[in-house]
């Protein structure tokens, strides 16, 4: 299997790097599996901070639409549920990790990638960062990732960006609560935050993080299964198939009114 997530332990800081540039770090089954394993390795290592970064100009493009669109004829509804659960599980893995996770972003973030951003405890973004929730444009919705985004985002901003699909930059992302710090020096800011975080004790960090994620995890317990089923239904719908094919073929979708 190709290595799509690189792991390195540097003292008290574990670094996970999304490294799948051929598909813009899309959330393929392989990448999600390796990311969850990397998080588990970081927890087992005794690290007191995890930095989640990326190679290339894109942090994460969201769902791997080539996988999603190729499932037709092979039990697509069941496959869609399985893939939706993969997303639920990786977001929960970040939230439940007893180690703070710092997102280090200086590139594009789209759709499901926004859910990863929402799950991180601290997020630093640089001037090359752009963000967008583009699901509605391909006939689906930010259903599962709403579990990590809605608790963080300003309500008016969520109401706007969930439906418009507009792009916005790091300064706007900080203003609406999506990220923690907008900066011209992502490596420097991340290094400083990781060093400060690593001064905490394992017990103190785990208990302190748990206070901030408890309400979000309660939302998972109440809504994750329903949102997983919703996501799966949307992804196998006729509208979504048209939306995904239009995206892959780089043409406007032909919606049936």
UniProtKB/TrEMBL annotation:
Domain of life where this protein originates: Bacteria
One protein family per Pfam: ECH_1
InterPro entries to which the protein is assigned, alphabetical: ClpP/crotonase-like_dom_sf, Enoyl-CoA_hydra/iso, Enoyl-CoA_hydra_C, Enoyl-CoA_Hydratase/Isomerase
Family: Belongs to the enoyl-CoA hydratase/isomerase family.
Protein name as annotated: Enoyl-CoA hydratase family protein
Organism annotation: Mycolicibacterium arenosum
């Amino acid at each position: 299997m190709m290595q799509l997530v690189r792991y390195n332990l540097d003292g008290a800081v574990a670094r996970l790097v999304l490294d799948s540039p051929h598909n813009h770090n899309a959330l393929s089954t392989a990448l999600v599996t390796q990311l969850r394993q990397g998080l588990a390795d970081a927890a087992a290592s005794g690290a007191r901070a995890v930095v989640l970064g990326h190679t290339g100009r894109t942090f994460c493009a969201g769902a791997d639409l080539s996988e999603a669109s190729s499932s037709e004829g092979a039990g697509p509804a069941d496959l869609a549920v399985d893939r939706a659960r993969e997303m639920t599980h990786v977001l929960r893995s970040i939230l439940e990790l007893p180690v703070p996770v710092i997102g280090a972003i200086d590139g594009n973030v789209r759709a499901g990638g926004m859910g990863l951003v929402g799950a991180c405890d601290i997020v630093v973004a640089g001037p090359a960062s752009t963000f967008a929730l583009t699901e509605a444009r391909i006939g689906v919705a930010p259903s599962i990732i709403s579990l990590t985004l809605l608790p963080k985002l300003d309500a008016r901003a969520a109401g706007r960006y969930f439906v418009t699909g507009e792009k916005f930059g790091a300064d706007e992302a900080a203003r609406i609560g999506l990220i923690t710090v907008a900066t011209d020096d992502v490596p420097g800011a991340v290094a400083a935050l990781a060093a400060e975080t690593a001064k905490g004790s394992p017990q103190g960090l785990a208990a302190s993080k748990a206070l901030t994620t408890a309400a979000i995890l309660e939302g998972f317990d109440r809504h994750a299964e329903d949102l997983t089923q919703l996501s799966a239904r949307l992804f196998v719908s006729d509208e979504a198939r048209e939306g995904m094919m239009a995206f892959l073929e780089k043409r406007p979708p032909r919606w049936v009114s």
